[in-house]
User: Fold this.
Amino acid sequence: MAVEKRVFFRSTWLPWLLLAPQLVIVGVFFFWPAGQAVLQSLQEQDAFGLSVNWVGLDNFRALLSDSAYLESFKTTAVFSILVAVLGIALSLFLAVFADRIIRGALVYRTMLIVPYAVAPAVAGVLWVFMFSPSIGVVSYMLSHSLGFEWNHLLDSGHAMALIVTAAVWKQISYNFLFFLAGMQSIPKSLIEAAAMDGARPWRRFWTIQFPLLSPTTFFLLVINMVYAFFDTFAIIDATTHGGPGRDTVILVYKVYQDGFKGGDIGGAAAQSVILMLVVVAMTVFQFRYIEKKVNY
Amino acid sequence: MVERRPWLDLLAHAVMVLGLLIVAFPLYLAFVASTHTAQDILQAPMPLLPGAHLWDNYAAALTGQGGGAGSNAPVARMMWISLVTALVITFGKISISLLSAFALVYFQFPFRSLFFWAIFITLMLPVEVRIGPTYQVVSDLGMLNTYAGLTVPLIASATATFLFRQFFLTVPDELLEAARMDGAGPMRFFKDILLPLSRTSIAALFVIQFIYGWNQYLWPLLATTSEDMYPVVVGIKRMIAGGDSGNEWNIVMATAILAMLPPAVVVVFMQRWFIKGLVDTEK
Assistant:
């Protein structure tokens, strides 16, 4: 695709006018706050904003030596890897079978994209309702048919399992659509040639389809990590509130807790800055990796 | 298919049906719960077939007649807030992005690439990482508890600009040359040629942005402090604050169904554009 047009309109003022609305909004609600976050991360404020001191990198030092913060990093890593890997594996599995289906394909697809439309907060409410230790249907079944006592309010493993399940459930639609599109863009002639050479479906999947899907898979890996980092705030706030203890406090949840509940503005700003760096690193990684991988 | 393997086709259908059952179960259960009385649901296990209280529960939820221990604000008002918010975000984003993508693609002017990057860097950082300072800006501007406060900060991202730019670059240059030869100015070209050509992209973005706007949680949670400005997604979370036995789960689940209905309808009925838009935007 062209990066530039060959011909342009000529006007000295019109492009500025056209750009103005977006530039104003981006300036006021993006660059100004992002700049503020960087500034505040270098300052210390009291809870009422009455006094401000420059403290250099102290906020960052304090964070990196704070065991609760490092713990939250670990929680986030475990959570996002589980969400990404399970979500991708499940949707790939479904997409492989959906690709075989000709009759009824639209019905399956329509049903599978519905969770995409469900808000994370609503998804959280649905899952906490099913798994509630006292009234939940699933926890009841677990305890009465398997003798397994589910309690995500006390057991941090259960709490993690709950938020991972809810997050994966919501993301299956998205992953599924990308895998299905990926499968359908693989030339049929490749599959036919392999079939004629005697390769069975299982072998054809691993030697042809799976390698050709690798750009999609890597892309989804990054997208799912970003999703788990940021979009799952509502799921956690509706289910575990970061508990039991602090065992499901992911980084975004901690920024919220420290900055809005705890009044630690400098510390929260430093956390924001670290988060920004993490996202930028992920995005750069994604672009570099995809650029390289896209030409098989 | 390449070869006939009836057992494999059967397996494929079996897997899909199983997958659907698992994916649909939470939705089904929410619907069932929204048709029973609060007492029925508290008796573990709750019934697994729909009951007879559908209208009572939905009417109670919409008008705020529930008696749960959490919030009991009327859901009709929340749905209205959500609808306005989602539509303003959708149309706001689409219109400013059309204009700025048009400027970036069809004009040459000083600092163009600087602006290009200034806009596209916003793609990387979701509102979640800069909530604190954004909250301060919005509060300093007196925009808390207003529609403007709920929407404008979320419009500050470049997803739509990016998609429109990609699309404009594929529009043949000959169209522009022809338009210029016929004496059409830039805005005429934009209105009569570019906009009609962009219909599919606009439809796709409509779906994506509507869902994005409707489903926002963290930002509205901060930007609203008064109950009559809560979108439904925030409202439902406040409803379950009463604890497992204090909540009226029938009302909560009726609210959940109401809250997911508009985005689900949009995504299901516009799925052709939605899928195209999704796969095109992100790739």
